[in-house]
Amino acid sequence: MSSMPVHIQAAYTDEMTAARTAADDTTRWAHLERAHILSQPYPWPHTRNHLAMLVLALRRRDRRETLGQVVRIIVAAPGSASGRYPEGNTGRSGAGLMTPMPMPDDLARILAGTP
Predict the structure, then answer these.
(1) ∠ at Cα 16 (69, 26), nearest 5°?
(2) Which residue, 13, 52, 58, 96, is most buried by CB atoms nearer than 10 A?
(3) Contact, 28 vs 22, CB < 8 A?
């Protein structure tokens, strides 16, 4: 897979930064989920996103989410590289591993490269 286009990289970085600096875990998760949607086509950013989700799950002592993130870390890069990932999926353990989900309009525009 090619490298992440600059406009997607900028949006991904913004979401990951917002997750790191959020005042509460609910907001952190929301930003990590948005970053996940942006990162799915790109093996390393996709895996990095799941690593950040794992760290948050461990910090919260959430066993279900932790296990779900470990599984997702294993399959993230191969799924991205092969193009087999569920578009719009938030990446959380409560979302089916291969379940497509509605994509937020702003993220769909970013991924499509349209304003």
Answers:
(1) 65
(2) 52
(3) yes
pTM for the predicted model, two decimal places: 0.95
Report the C-alpha gap between 56 and 33 in whole angstroms: 12
Closest CA to 46 of 20, 21, 83, 18: 83
Asked if 110 and 8 touch (Cβ cutoff 8 Å), the reply is: yes
110 contact partners, CB below 8 Å, separation of at least 6? 7, 8, 11, 38
The residue ranges of the chain whose pLDDT is under 70 are 1-2, 115
Q: Is the dihedral of CA 11, 13, 19, 21 positive or negative?
A: negative
